[in-house]
Amino acid sequence: MFPLSGSYMMEETTDFGYRQVPPEVKTQLVRAVFESVASRYDLMNDLMSFGLHRLWKRFALLHTGLRPGNRALDLAGGTGDLARLMTRQVGPEGEVILTDINPAMLTQGRGKLLDAGLGGRLHYAVANAEILPFPDNHFQCVTIGFGLRNVTRKESALAEIQRVLAPGGRALVLEFSRPYGPIRRPYDLYSFSVLPRLGRYVARDESSYRYLAESIRRHPDQKTLKAMMQTAGLERVRYYNLASGIVAVHLGWKL
Q1: Strands 122-126, 95-100: pairing kind
Q2: What pairs with residue 99 in β-bridges?
Q3: Residue 15 sits in the same domain as residue 72
Q4: Which of 20-53 are b and which e, b meaning 16 or more Cβ less than 10 Å from the residue's Cβ?
Q5: So what's the pLDDT on residue 3?
Q6: Count of the separate structural domains present in the chain
Q7: Which of 62, 66, 133, 167 is the most buried (most CB within 10 A)?
């Protein structure tokens, strides 16, 4: 779709799965991936994780520190699972903003949340996590669930999260990570053999789910992401491994 010319290869590049592409091309490619899978995104999440993604999200949100009346921001929020749960934490007097760079994903999320009767308690914005249209020191919690690995410049997104957090606020990154122990080999087999086939038969898009498997492998491991969050100015950063490190929740504060 986007051939790489010789001049491209002389410029700054970033990873799109196992390929190296110019940053602006990655943004276009990621948008195309999620436009393709948006209508079957929730179904595929349930199938790929055997429903465990719901438990992982609930575990992450045990650490938001949100109270009634607080403000929360969900980045790359897609179909709104984290945003939906945070509306319960902040109550009717609080504010939750659901954002995604992809309008198709945001449309899916808004429709699902309207069906759940939460449409009037959420705000929506098409936004790039690298350049957020929100003021400094505004939110008590910022979350990004299974989205950071798709961001072109992760350092910029983490710096923006730190900027918009209010002092005392928390950043939560829920993401696939680096598994450990005997699960690693079967997990690799599943990721590169079963997952693309699921994409082919259920989402009618094998290549997008092959990219998603590759993007997981290219994402920084637990310790590297912790260091990146610290470099962005977040403090007391820690992480929790789930499912033998297949998924990790990273938590940092703005002090």
Answers
A1: parallel
A2: 125
A3: no
A4: ebbeebbbebbbebbebbbebbbebbebbbeeeb
A5: 38
A6: 2
A7: 66
pLDDT tens-digit map of 159-169: 999 999 999 99
C-alpha span between 180 and 92 (Å, rounded)? 41
Give pLDDT, residue 119: 66
Identify the domain containing residue 129 by its residue range: 38-180+212-253
Are both 20 and 47 inside the same structural domain?
A: no
Six token digits for residue 171: 């950043």
Can you give the length of the chain in residues?
Answer: 255
pTM summary value? 0.90
SS3 label, residue 60: helix
DSSP annotation of 64 reads S
| Segment (H or E) for 140 | strand 139-145
- In single-letter form, the type of residue at position 134 comes to F
Residue 163 near residue 241 (C-beta atoms within 8 A): no
**pLDDT tens digits, one per residue of 211-222:** 888 999 999 999
> Does residue 190 lie in a domain region?
no
Q: Is the pLDDT of residue 110 over 50?
A: yes
Q: Is 15 part of any domain?
A: yes
116 within domain boundaries:
yes
Q: Residue 127: which CATH number? A: 3.40.50.150
Tokens for 209, please give them. Answer: 């789910």
